[in-house]
């Protein structure tokens, strides 16, 4: 994903890497329309705050990869 993001002119992005074949989250956005104010990366989720370049609207988006194993779920939901 990082290679794809780096090749884009219109889009920006962020990636939370996979662990082997598990997980991996990415987000892309049109940086001509959205200004990314902050990014918070964790193993199981990405939190982004955006400011619209057209109407000053603030938007917060979460992308999550919720694991199936109980111990990893505890880590996921307890991660701040």
Describe the protein's architecture and organization:
The chain has 80 residues and is an alpha+beta fold. The chain has one domain. It is built from 2 helices and 5 strands, in the order αβββββα. A 3-stranded antiparallel beta sheet has the order 3-4-5, with no helix packed on it. A two-stranded antiparallel sheet has the order 1-2. A hairpin with a 3-residue loop joins β3 and β4. It is flat, with a radius of gyration of 14 Å. The two termini are 24 Å apart. The mean pLDDT is 79.
What secondary-structure arrangement, pairings included, does this model have?
Blueprint: H1 2-7, E1 11-16, E2 25-30, E3 34-41, E4 45-52, E5 58-64, H2 70-78
How would you describe this structure in keywords?
single chain; 80 residues; alpha+beta; two-stranded antiparallel sheet; 2 helices; flat
Task: Summarize it.
This protein has 80 residues and is an alpha+beta fold.
- How many strands appear in the DSSP assignment? 5
SSE sequence, one letter per element = HEEEEEH
Q: Spatial order of the strands in the main sheet?
A: 3-4-5
Enumerate the spans where pLDDT stays under 50 for 5 or more consecutive residues. Answer: none
The helix fraction, in percent, is 10-25%
Total domains, how many?
A: 1
Structural class label? alpha+beta
Mean pLDDT: 79
Report the span from N to C terminus. 24 Å
Strand content: 35-45%
Largest sheet: 3 strands, antiparallel
Shape verdict: flat
Which radius of gyration do the C-alpha atoms yield?
A: 14 Å
- Figure out the total of helices: 2
